[in-house]
Design a protein that fits this description.
alpha+beta
Length: 147
């Protein structure tokens, strides 16, 4: 197996594990909508069910969001061969998007919603998978912009 596949898949796997473990811990230790302040008035852990996508769009559109996730994953797999062995940053960013997408897809398939819990009070509540998808997409935009 080529090193690029190891980098992409191991990055994605680590993100999926961190995402699912944190969601499990929140789900088993918090009541729904229960806020827990880590930094008072700034950062809380708040257990929420999100039946839509980011910023509250596509609420109750589970199957559309599952389909979009599958399309994103398929797109990533389709373009794997275009990623060169020496492009380590690109491999990591692809792993971020892949891992985050799969992390939220697991929730949508298992529960019909995504478990969110990172609450900065000035931003919609999100999770680890959301963070890595966002970092990955922004990183990919910058990466290809500079290429």
């Amino acid at each position: 197996m080529k090193n690029k596949y190891i980098t992409i898949f191991s990055t994605a796997l680590i993100i999926i594990l961190i995402d699912q473990i944190t969601k499990f811990l929140i789900k088993t230790n918090f009541q729904l909508n229960q806020p827990f302040p880590l930094i008072n008035n700034i950062f809380y852990l708040t257990y929420r069910h999100n039946s839509g996508a980011g910023f509250g769009i596509l609420q109750q559109q589970r199957w559309i969001l599952i389909f979009i996730s599958i399309i994103v994953i398929g797109f990533i797999f389709y373009y794997f061969d275009r990623v060169k062995e020496k492009e380590i940053l690109l491999q990591a960013l692809v792993g971020f998007v892949l891992g985050g997408t799969i992390g939220n897809l697991i929730d949508r398939v298992a529960y019909g919603f995504v478990i969110d819990f990172l609450d900065f009070r000035i931003w919609p509540i999100f999770n680890v998978a959301d963070s890595f998808v966002t970092i990955g997409v922004i990183g990919l935009i910058i990466y290809f912009w500079n290429k």
